[in-house]
Write a structure and sequence with these properties.
Layout (H helix, E strand, L loop, with lengths): L3 E4 L6 E4 L9 H14 L1 E4 L6 H9 L21 E4 L13 H5 L19 E8 L7 E5 H6 L3 H7 L3 E4 L1 H7 L7 H5 L4 E4 L1 E3 L5 E3 L6 E4 L4 H15 L5 E4 L6 E5 L3 E5 L10 E7 L8
The structure holds fe (ii) ion.
């Protein structure tokens, strides 16, 4: 059966029906999903109560999978599953002031996943298992559109600039201690251009506030000011699609030209459990 698509926002996102992610999927269906993913940036599949193993199998159709650098956030049974949650391994809500509780709120900052890698991820698949009653929405913004619409003056100011992305920096944002040295050694800071040339020739603003420590060649103050200005431009309301989660929604997004954020929720009282697989990129970020 062919898949059906329904646009979710003028600039980004489509809902896909006619696919059972529990699989197996034939080659034509995989191809259709791949095409829709590259065209719309974000795909929504509703009512998909998949297991972790099924999520891994579905995600592998689109590339090899990353393993998250911090063991504390990985599923012990299925290491390709990154647990995006405020619930600990003991199945209780993490105290908000504990390291795990503080770490879980980093998703409230706009980013593209794994921009701290030399070859950042191509995309991600996120399965909602437990959702909250208020807040906890995921917002997405189209960075090709953000760059295309950017005032010429700002485009000229960022031409040729590069930013440093760092996993350690994301931990500093939440006053967390330095990570385990062996884990840190696997994710040293990397530099990426602010304007990314995609394989199809389109240009995209490549920004990720969670990991973007500074812009190279600028003073600390200028760097912070420019990062704030770019994030404000990139995430203006008109560019943003909002997804309100229901259990067993699955969202799949392109990390090369889409950024996302989660709206705050009462993480001291409500459980939010999502499982993510992360599809590894195949090329460095080119300017
Ligand atoms: Fe993310």
């Amino acid at each position: 059966m062919p898949i059906r698509l329904r646009k979710l926002h003028p600039l980004i996102g489509a809902e896909v029906t006619g696919v059972d992610l529990a699989g197996p999927l034939d080659q034509a269906t995989v191809e259709a999903v791949r095409n829709a993913w590259s065209r719309y940036g974000v795909l929504l599949f509703r009512r998909q109560p998949i297991t972790d193993e099924q999520q891994v199998a579905f995600s592998r159709h689109f590339g090899s999978l990353e393993i998250f650098p911090q063991a504390a956030n990985r599923s012990q049974a299925v290491p390709e599953i990154f647990r995006v949650t405020n619930v600990g391994d003991d199945n209780r809500i993490r105290p908000v002031d504990s390291p795990g509780g503080r770490y879980s709120t980093l998703i409230w900052v706009w980013h593209t996943d794994s921009s701290y890698r030399r070859v950042p991820s191509k995309g991600a698949v996120l399965h909602a298992i437990e959702v909250v009653s208020k807040g906890g929405d995921t917002l997405f913004a189209n960075m090709c559109h953000a760059y295309r619409q950017m005032p010429a003056e700002l485009k000229a100011r960022i031409a040729g600039l590069r930013a440093r992305h760092s996993f350690q920096y994301s931990r500093q944002l939440r006053q967390l201690p330095p990570m385990d040295p062996a884990e840190a050694a696997r994710v040293p800071p990397v530099d990426h251009p602010l304007v990314r040339r995609l394989r199809d020739g389109r240009l995209s603003l490549y920004v990720s506030a969670t990991y973007m420590e500074r812009i190279l060649g600028l003073s600390e103050g200028e760097s912070r000011k420019l990062i704030d200005e770019l994030m404000a431009w990139a995430t203006q309301d008109a560019f943003v699609f909002r997804h309100r989660w229901h259990p067993h929604d699955v969202l799949m997004w392109d990390n090369r030209w889409c950024i996302h954020v989660v709206t705050p929720f009462d993480h001291s009282a409500e459980r939010r459990v999502m499982h993510r697989t992360t599809i590894a990129g195949i090329e460095p970020v080119e300017g």
